[in-house]
Automatic annotation (TrEMBL):
Example of a GO biological process term: phosphoenolpyruvate-dependent sugar phosphotransferase system
Record's keyword annotation contains Nucleus: no
Compartments reported by the entry: Cytoplasm
GO cellular component: cytoplasm
The name this protein goes by in its record: Phosphoenolpyruvate-protein phosphotransferase
């Protein structure tokens, strides 16, 4: 039966494919297609993992102390029975043989099917056996990942290979962490749907950077959509259509093709300079999350990197943070890839909806009812970890010996933070000089993303070379709306007069002092905002590389003399 779900659009376009349901804890299971010739070997790998777990459980049972409760032995029996059940074994083999899924993927796909059947059971005792099934599958997945011959995980992220083409998949999950979302680059998925998340949550931002249609905040999606359902994602409207009729499917296939043609057409603007009709040059920069994204930035015609979110280097590493050398290589890689264009490297911004690890201090705080968006985030965390911070500063400074680098500091609000940060930068430079390590001229900039900073922007202009306005957070903190919470997403409004007022104030102040100012929040890539920002005097925009061509077209068609800082029918108090 066809039905529709409404969520929040985060990445434009149309995706059509079969649903792949993944629970949050299993998002990082390896997903890849195997060659037909590998089917037998993959089934054998699964069999060996199962035998190993059965043996483990039987040994455990044999060695149970005499006074162990009888239920324990019965429980182990249940686990062995589940492992040998055809519903798990035969069906999992079928996913491998017919769909060419690797063993881990097949196993987690079958678990989702069975878990749903357990959920629907009337009998409470049977319903509760779902937890046993999950434990057994977790065990199997662990054995497989510990050398069951699979490719396993790379750098804590899911390992995915290119889709075989005829079987497009759409990932449906309750939630996906920003780091796991990042792992889906070059993946088999052609779209994403999540139950939770706001349009500027970091998960949504990463989804957008993957340039594939996505809908977040679709509430019950992962409960209502079944494994393998055909679904259409309308990434412009935030709509998910499950089991679409042939007519609807045809309509969306047509829109998909039109979108591809439009992208191709816009791609031809790559070498055209972004200048308005009245001759105002506009700088279009790229936001990147990994060093390897620099390629996409160049391909899109970016004039540099306006925001390198370095925190993605720090995530999912089980507490082992990247050292100075590793960071230096990553930053230098991005600088070299940008071929002489400037690269703005932001110091680490973890916290809030970007936890370092899956169970991090930030999540623990959240569980305790504390709000991580107002906690030890970004520069606050860096200043609380001075040796980590100095390492990062040294790595960024060293990268500047290989090309133009601008250093950017997130979430500053206090005079004391400004002073301490600038002292730390001086100290890092001194350490490099003492060690005889080279660094170049580096401009230092501040992100203006807390209302306090916006209101005292003059103090920032006194101390910094440039400003970058982080509107994602500026909106969040001005309106007291958690950007990652879909329950209040309807109140997350960058058009709010208070936000526009702050934006205008910052841009005007920077221009008056002759200092460069850029917007690098999501509104920079939103063509509905371009005229208002140009009217405010903004001439530098940083966004996902995929948004650059459409924004350039908008700039080329705009006459700044006709732009107004007023949005039709909503005014800006000024
Ligand atoms: C912002 O807040 O607008 C920004 C660019 O930074 P981030 O989205 O990484 O918080
Ligand atoms: Mg921010």
């Amino acid at each position: 039966m066809s039905f529709q779900l409404f969520g929040l659009p985060v990445a434009r376009g149309v995706a059509i494919g079969r649903a792949l349901l993944v629970s949050s804890s299993r998002v990082d299971v390896a997903h890849y297609y195997i060659e037909p010739a590998q089917i037998e070997a993959e089934i054998q790998r699964l069999r060996m993992a199962r035998d190993a777990v059965v043996e483990e459980l039987e040994t455990l049972q044999r060695e149970l102390p005499g006074d162990a409760p009888a239920e324990l032995s019965a429980l182990l029996d249940v686990h062995v029975m589940l492992l040998q059940d055809e519903l798990l074994g035969a069906a999992t083999k079928q996913w491998i043989a017919e769909r060419h899924y690797n063993a881990e993927w097949a196993l987690s796909a079958q678990l989702e099917v069975l878990a749903r059947q357990f959920d629907e059971m009337e009998d409470e005792y049977l319903r509760e056996r779902k937890a046993d099934l999950e434990q057994v599958v977790e065990r199997l997945l662990l054995v497989l990942s510990e050398g069951g011959g699979g490719r396993g995980r790379a750098g804590g992220l899911p390992q995915l290979s290119a889709a075989t083409g005829d079987n497009p998949l759409i990932l449906v999950a309750n939630d996906i962490s920003p780091a796991d979302m990042l792992g889906f680059r070059r993946s088999v998925f052609t779209g994403f749907v999540t139950d939770v998340g706001g349009p500027t949550s970091h998960t949504a931002i990463v989804a957008r950077s993957l340039n594939i249609p996505a809908v977040v905040g679709a509430r019950e999606a992962s409960r209502l959509i079944r494994q393998d359902d055909w679904i259409v994602i309308d990434g412009d409207a935030g709509l998910v259509i499950v089991d679409p009729s042939p007519i609807v499917l045809e309509e969306y296939r047509f829109r998909q093709r039109s979108g591809e043609l439009e992208r191709e057409r816009l791609g031809r603007l790559r070498h055209t300079p972004a200048v308005t009709l009245d001759g105002e040059p506009v700088e279009l920069l790229a936001n990147i999350e990994l060093q390897s994204d620099a390629e996409a930035a160049i391909a899109a015609g970016a004039q540099g990197v306006g925001l390198f979110r370095t925190e993605f280097l720090f995530m999912n590493r089980n507490g082992e943070l990247p050292g100075e050398e590793e960071q230096f290589e990553a930053y230098r890689g991005a600088v070299m890839a940008m071929q002489g264009l400037p690269v703005t490297i932001r110091t680490v911004d973890v916290g809030a909806d970007k936890p370092l690890d899956r169970l991090s201090i930030h999540e623990l705080r959240q569980e305790q009812g504390l709000n991580p968006a107002l906690g030890l985030r970004a520069i606050r965390w860096s200043l609380s970890e001075p040796s980590m911070f100095r390492q990062q500063l040294r790595a960024i400074l060293r990268a500047s010996a290989h090309g133009p680098v601008r250093l950017l500091i997130p979430m500053l609000a206090h005079e004391s933070e400004i002073r301490l940060t600038l002292e730390m930068i001086d100290r890092a430079k001194q350490q490099l000089r003492e060690a005889g390590l080279a660094y170049g001229e580096v401009q230092v900039g501040a992100m203006i993303e807390v209302p306090a900073a916006a209101l005292m922007v003059e103090a920032f202009l006194d101390r910094f070379d440039f400003l970058a306005i982080g509107t994602n957070d500026l909106v969040q903190y001005t309106l007291a709306i958690d950007r990652a919470d879909e329950a209040v997403a309807h109140l997350y409004d960058p058009w709010h007069p208070a936000v526009l007022h702050l934006l205008h104030h910052i841009i005007r102040a920077a221009r008056k002092r002759g200092k460069s100012v850029c917007v690098c929040g999501e509104i920079a890539g939103d063509i509905d905002f371009t005229e208002v920002l140009l009217a405010m005097g903004l001439r530098s925009f940083s966004m996902h590389p995929s948004q650059i061509p459409a924004l350039k077209q908008k700039v080329l068609r705009t006459d700044t003399r006709r732009c107004s800082v007023l949005r039709p029918a909503r005014g800006v108090p000024d």
